[in-house]
Please model this.
Amino acid sequence: MFGKMLLRVLTRQKKKSLLIVLTVALGVSLATSMLNVMFDVGDKVNQELKAYGANLNIVPKGASFVSDMYQIDDNNQATPSQFIQEDELVKIKMIFWAYNIVDFAPYLSVTANIDDKPVKIVGTWFDKHLIIPTGDEIDTGMLAMKSWWQIDGSKMVDDNLHGAMMGETLAKKLNLKIGDEFTIVAPKTQQIITLTVNNIFHSGGIEDSEIYVSLPIAQKLADKVGLVERIEVSALTTPENELARRAAQDPNSLSRNEWDVWYCTAYISSIAYQLEEVMPSVRVKAIMQVAESEGAILQKTQLLMILLTILSLVCSALAISNLVTANVIERSAEIGLLKALGASNSAVAMLIICEILIIGFIGGVIGYFIGVGFAQIIGYTVFGSTIEPKILIIPLVGLMVLFITLLGSVPALRMMIFLKPIDVLHGR
Amino acid sequence: MLNKNRLFITKTLLSSLIRRRSRILVALLGTAIGATVLFGMVTLCYDIPRQMGKAFRSYGANIIFMPAGSHATIDLNLVNAATDLIPSTQRIGVTPFRYLAVRSNVVPYTLVGTDFQQITKTSPYWLIEGQFPSQDNEIMIGIDVANYAHLSIGDIMPIAGKSRQNDNFDQIFKIVGIVKTGKTEDSFIFVNFTKLESLLQEQNQAEVIELSISAPKEELQNYIAKVKLNFPSIEPHLIKWVTQSETQVLGKLSSLLYLVTSVVLILTMICVATTMMTVVIERRKEIGLKKALGAENRRIAKEFLAESLFLGFIGGLIGSLFGLLFAQVISREVFGSSIVFEFYLIPFTILISMLVTVVACLMPVKQAVEVEPALVLRGE
Amino acid sequence: MNILEVNNVSKNYGSLYALADINMTVGDGKWLSIMGPSGSGKSTLMNIIGCMDKPTSGSVILDGQDITQLSLTDLTVIRRDKIGLIFQQFHLVPYLTALENVMLAQYYHSMVDEKEALNALERVGLHARAKHLPRQLSGGEQQRVCIARALINYPKLILADEPTGNLDEANESLVMNLLHQLHQEGSSIIVVTHSPEVAKHAETTVVLEHGKIAQIIDNLK
Model:
């Protein structure tokens, strides 16, 4: 009988039940999409912040002073006395957090003469295809890291041993256009190399008066075959916290447990530490400007999303429970009748709760899928990638619906207990 | 005479609002929630890109001034005049730098004079162990210098060099801080700007000025053009690395916010509408009775219109207040600063919530008036 | 002159006949009862006469006007100008006082007049309870408010659907006395009921069975 009545209530009040289902579905979809976006926003924004380029700088251990200041002319620059072996570069992708290394590029600079004027030539990987001993294959290089460069001309490739990317300022000074040829004289060996301008780029920094070439050319010019001067690495990192800061000071100061946590978290300091482990002859320096700012922005974005999510949850909860309350109160006549027929408070409460829960369940299921859809729309529109639906959200939302609908029926249930059947039936 | 009728219907409307307290509360709560979300989210949408822009200033300077032509330095008075072109609210920091080649125990170093107070603003990312020099005989050294020369905080360091007038100086400094940035600063020695001036025996000259300005790229470019025009001895540069990436990432974050806002708004507005609908559907019998008494459809619709307008207004007003509160809380929590809100958003919010309640009310009313009263009144 | 003429009225819902070929007339100032068991078509007939429903075929002439030819909007106007309705379930607006409920009928008809509304309430003996809400009134009092509301616009025809259905005997006689008073003042009255006791008050009783007129009783004889 109970089941039959429940069925009748649900099917007879079709329109009203439908409205509640709709509201629950909307509330749940709001919660689902916000939760999904919230859980994923960290990764997505982190990915976006890679636009700022490298956050780690790898230099040879002995090199004391690296000159890469953006504007200070360093004519008396001492040539770095130490170098890193080019073959060691693959090891970067073999650390514990290899998956978090987004991109890296080696650099070797040499001052050579063009028309008897000294010009800084930098050899690098543009977009090199690498085969890692672990079996992975990746493409890595400078082009992906310098997203803010404005580059004219066809894409530079590493196999192009006759091409060069020339800074805008320098090209103007030398009066060269894309396709023009120029000759470089190596300082030590007096070797002469003729190159073609493949691209002209604008970086807004000192690079604008430099020339970028494929690494082998620079190595030949500098007479440093198989060697690089420094490596820039762009890695996805977790924002720094107290533990990470302490570890950055001195990893040995951590307790065993802390050390494990630190080592297994993608803090910039632990990635730097792991890189130093696999490449004993280097020093890995975190570029604070990028690392710290990334952390700050990431935290702000996440906090913002969390607060907005909480707000949406509260609002959808209020809206749903509000409606549930309205619906149950409205049916006081029916409840009065049931009570008059001898139904106990608990029996009536059972009926109401079951009904609300069934409606809530249907609405919740519909809402979940709408919410996942909304999350995907947001993911695609903003970040151009899917937002992976987290399984965790399903029980979370389920609990929310359960809690909210029950909460929404509380005032109605209270009212019901104090309801005298006569009052209702006599229309008072 | 007509006034009597108007007075009566106004009174009945008020009665409806006052005597149906619990339902009105439900409806009012619904509209207030909608208005809160609307006001709060729109306010945040207005303000957050700006606040986020400020957060992005942690990446440091986005404009540098360099001496134009063959000059080695810029007069700081000119710099002050040039930076006055920027509204003070957008000017985060202006830091002068002056470099001097020095020796310490025969090893060459670069001594940098700067304003440490401004450094905390233009380069908040500097990781400092110890503290900034406050006395003239104190210095801060880069981590590479510290490692190379095996120096630590509290040690002393002799520094020798030449002034502009070619007078030699040789003074002893106390190390109070070690800076780590992962970039060139790691190999410099820092001293108070005024101290370096006294060592150099010159005044008000800087080689590089770093500016951190909270403004979008286009504004920065306008500013640069203005400086170029008015101050020929200054060569301003946009630090593209910072501005370009900021534009890109900030754009994404803003569109994320806009999208989230629209999703939240659409869903809450529909929620509000369904709540209003259930509250009105309940009154079908009343509508039937009024029809039986001879009320035309338009008259009934008008009554409900007035009631929903009133509900929308009150709900919108309450919602605006709560929305402001919640935008303020979020702004405080996330960015640590007060929200700037636009006053015209209050009438806007009220208008929208009135619109939503009216639409949500009139839909079921329209349905109800089309049904013949007999069907509604019979039984039940 | 007849206030109401019902000619060959039929009403069917699909293949189900609620009314079949009903003919009757009500003279001006007459009191008619429509009696019959549940499902006999009383309520359908009353709804058609009350301009709240339309017959499938046949014509209804109310105060000289064929209401079957009118649009829904025109029916609304006829209803408020010529008919005073009394319902079994009273149907008072729950959030309005007794006085306001009466005034609501004035409002939709023409112009509110508090004094007149109070007079109407006085006539039904509810002057003291004018400011009470329906839920504060007893069933009989609620029905009397309904009668006050029905007569406030001086309708040509008072149409009562089971006016005493929800009332005890004391209240029943109160209500019937009121209807008698109205009748004596010249109002035409149609009362729909299943109770022979109530039907007896009328001059004529029409008995419906299965949608047809089974019997016409002249109570005066």
Q: What stands out?
A: The radius of gyration of chain A is 33 Å. The interface with chain C takes residues 426-428 of chain A (CB under 8 Å). DSSP finds 13 helices and 14 strands in chain A. Residues 64-79 of chain A have pLDDT under 50 and may be disordered.
